[in-house]
Design brief:
mainly alpha
């Protein structure tokens, strides 16, 4: 094994040690194991949310798309840049309060309790397990490819090494191990990708030289419509590309659970600041590296390996290996989060809800660990056969999850009258539309992105479904109102109130002054 590969193996062992460190605390209760005791602060919340969102897609799928389509790929980055701000601003405070009021420990359990419908939990669990596992398959494939590049070992061996470490620390340390390793890996991701980008731009002579060189090969690379203007005039595709990452995170169970685990609602403001800063440093860079590769790596056989190849081109092997830790950091930070959430759903929303309602805290922690382990093993088996590209698999799984759950989650905290049938219909209509649109390749026929089609049908399903079903009970309405939090009047309104009450206040003060002696005697 090469020296750089041995260094990275050491990095994996450190992550494993983190999982073991948190294992005792995680074992204390199911709340600690699944949500970290709702104790996560703003910086860790921000970086675990972002690093678990980005995944191996950002180091492999995103650059590959930019390598193939040029500047068109940055439509995805434009939406992604503001995704965390929208996610935290829209769902953060209200979902944190309401999930605690309802006593929910998983995003699917939260939906069942909010809409008082076991059917939502059943359907939500099925959708989540299938597409979270599809999501994790993509990460495992990416981990095998990245480790092969670093170590020179066969793909299957690298897959087993990387995934074994991810499963081990997730099973042992639970949610706390996941979020703290995500925090560290989020920092590594930014340092790694920015370091590679700085040297790559220096190598090519800056942005202007890049555009000139790309235009000399094919000027359509510079178009916002993609190479050969393949998406010319297809605003439905462009809008979908922006929206999938701008608002889609609000439908991912492994991301929205971060709202539920925050220490308090005050965590939201700091988390927005940290995540927005991280996004601007990170989001656009992998796509730009994909465009740079058009010039520096024109004959690369696998476009998903653009960043590893560039790293070894612009840095000595030792430093390249250190920076390429960022790729595994991205992969692992998403893999552990998705595995954690899949295990949570299997244990909490399936086993405890329908098999053993009276399971003890100790037993539930054990069941959660077993479910995570099983999910990881299945993921390895599938990843060995290398399904579609990381880009295709991530966008598909991401889109279906976002279309299934985003509208119900938003409705849960902003619409007190949404019925159980409305939420269920939105879930099924959104997810099913995305599947049909993707499998049937309807984007080419309709010029509408699968995510946009799913979003429109999900909203339609919610509106139609609300005419049927059962309105929330008074208990849920009271919880909904409480979750809104304290109301604060704007400064303008406060000034107007003060101005209106000022004469009365003066009269009362004057009356008190003139009659003070009588009042005291009385």
């Amino acid at each position: 094994m090469r020296l750089d590969g041995m260094i990275f193996i050491g990095y994996l062992l450190i992550l494993l040690a983190v999982g073991l460190w948190f294992s005792r605390k995680a074992s204390k209760s199911v709340d600690n194991y699944l949500l970290g005791g709702r104790s996560i602060g703003p910086a860790v919340t921000a970086l675990t949310m972002q690093s678990s969102s980005m995944s191996g897609y950002m180091f492999m799928g995103g650059p590959a798309l930019a390598f193939q389509q040029g500047w068109y790929a940055l439509w995805y980055a434009i939406g992604d840049a503001g995704g965390s701000i929208i996610n935290l601003s829209v769902l953060g405070k209200r979902m944190r309060r309401l999930s605690e009021i309802l006593g929910a420990l998983s995003p699917i359990e939260y939906l069942e309790k909010r809409f008082e419908s076991p059917s939502i939990r059943v359907v939500g669990s099925i959708i989540s397990i299938i597409f979270l596992m599809a999501y994790v398959f993509a990460q495992f494939i990416a981990s095998g490819k990245a480790l092969t590049m670093l170590t020179g070992l066969p793909y299957e061996v690298c897959l087993l090494i990387g995934v074994s470490v991810i499963i081990s620390y997730t099973v042992a340390g639970g949610y706390l191990a996941v979020v703290w390793t995500d925090f560290v890996q989020g920092i590594i991701m930014v340092v790694g990708v920015v370091g590679i980008a700085v040297m790559a731009f220096f190598h090519i002579g800056g942005l202007s030289n890049l555009n000139e060189a790309v235009a000399a090969i094919d000027p359509t690379y510079l178009s916002v419509w993609g190479k050969d203007l393949v998406y010319y005039g297809q605003w439905g595709v462009v809008l979908g590309a922006i929206l999938i990452y701008a608002i889609g995170y609000m439908g991912l169970p492994h991301v929205v659970v971060r709202h539920m685990s925050m220490k308090s609602t005050k965590t939201v403001k700091g988390a927005i600041l940290y995540s927005a800063t991280w996004n601007q440093l990170f989001i656009f860079t992998p796509y730009l590296l994909g465009i740079i590769a058009i010039i520096l790596l024109p004959t690369i056989s696998d476009p998903e390996m653009v960043i590893p190849e560039l790293a070894y081109m612009v840095f000595p092997g030792f430093f390249a290996a250190l920076l390429l830790s960022a790729i595994m950091a991205a992969i692992m930070s998403t893999s552990d989060s998705v595995l954690m959430q899949a295990g949570t759903i299997l244990s909490r929303d399936v086993y405890q809800r329908f098999i053993d309602k009276n399971a003890s805290q100790k037993k539930m922690v054990l069941i959660s660990r077993i479910c995570i382990l099983i999910g990881g093993i299945v993921g390895v088996i599938v990843a060995i056969y290398e399904p579609p590209s990381v880009f295709a698999l991530v966008v598909f799984a991401f889109g279906v999850l976002g279309n299934s759950f985003m509208v119900p989650y938003i409705a849960s905290v902003y619409s007190r009258k949404t019925t159980n049938i409305g939420a269920l219909t939105a879930m099924i209509a959104g997810g099913l539309t995305n599947v049909i649109w993707t499998v049937g390749e309807l984007e080419a026929v309709t010029a509408i992105h699968p995510f946009l089609a799913g979003l429109l049908l999900s909203i339609t399903g919610l509106i139609i479904g609300n005419f049927f079903g059962r309105t929330p009970s008074q208990k849920i309405i009271d919880a909904f109102e409480e979750a809104k939090g304290p109301r604060h009047l704007s400064r303008t309104i406060q000034k107007n109130i003060s101005r209106e009450l000022s004469p009365e206040a003066k009269n009362i003060s004057e009356f008190y002054r003139q009659n003070q002696s009588d009042i005291i005697k009385g």
